[in-house]
Write a structure and sequence with these properties.
By secondary structure, the protein is α/β, with parallel strands linked by helices. The protein has eight helices and five strands; from the N terminus they run βαβααβααβααβα. It has helices at residues 17-32, 46-56, 65-89, 100-110, 115-126, 141-150, 164-180, 194-213, and strands at 5-11, 37-40, 93-97, 133-138, 185-189. The protein binds thymidine-5'-diphosphate (TYD).
Length: 214
């Protein structure tokens, strides 16, 4: 492998990204003997985590949608330069919880800023640096929210408080993004059992790893 692999996991709140990521880390270790670099957005580095706390602060109810989109892009840039790119260049497998597609679905579509506009600021932020593969965990938001509330230990943030129709829009947005990037984004049914989901995800990653290795 001349470079590492950049994998991103996407999905609405409560789709099961965290569980899937920890299972994928295990699978990659067992089958490919490689420790991954697990990371997340917004955040993943000290400066990006500081931006995250501004974005997700429940007191910031007056945040303008474009301000929010720019802050996500700023956090993304910092995390990309500080964590993701150096890891990929030293042949690591990076698994990132959310990336550009989150901004396209949440800010571009659900908040109505427009996917093309949000893509433009993200193109500037990332210099067009995109994942090798993205797994989008697709689930009905009603099912996803019931999962979130069943798990009381999870931090409830400002965005969790948004109404279910916002999450329906996020889902529509993601499906449009997936249709735009069919070679990169795999749509997985996240209502299946965590075991079945992890197996399906592993098959996709396994194929990517063997392609890179050859
Ligand atoms: P987080 O607590 O990390 O949620 P999750 O566990 O669902 O990933 O909060 C991240 C929130 O930020 C989540 O509601 C999605 C939102 N978000 C955007 O709106 N745009 C973005 O570009 C990113 C990265 C996240």
């Amino acid at each position: 492998m001349s470079k590492g692999i950049f994998i991103t996991i996407e999905g609405g709140d409560g789709a099961g990204k965290t569980t899937l990521i920890s299972r994928l880390n295990e699978q990659i270790y067992i089958h490919a003997q490689q420790r991954t670099v697990p990371t997340r957005e917004p955040g993943g580095s000290p400066i990006a985590e500081a931006i995250r706390s501004v974005i997700l602060d429940r007191k910031n109810t007056r945040m303008d949608p474009r301000t929010e989109a720019l802050l996500y892009a700023a956090a993304r840039r910092q995390h990309l330069m500080e964590i993701v790119k150096p890891a990929i260049e030293s042949k690591k497998i990076v698994i990132c919880d959310r990336f550009v597609d989150s901004s396209l679905a949440y800010q571009g579509y659900a908040r109505g800023l427009g996917m093309d506009e949000v893509w433009e600021i993200n193109r500037f932020a990332t210099d067009g640096y995109m994942p090798d593969v993205t797994l989008y965990l697709d689930i009905d938001p009603v099912v996803a929210m019931s999962r979130i509330h069943a798990n009381s230990s999870r931090e409830v943030n400002r965005l969790d408080l948004e109404k279910i129709d916002f999450h329906q829009k996020v889902r529509e947005g993601y499906l449009q993004v997936a249709a735009r990037f069919p070679n990169r984004i795999f749509v997985l049914d996240a209502s299946q059992t965590p075991e079945a989901l992890a197996l399906e995800a592993w098959k996709i990653i396994e194929a990517k790893l063997s392609l890179k290795g050859s």
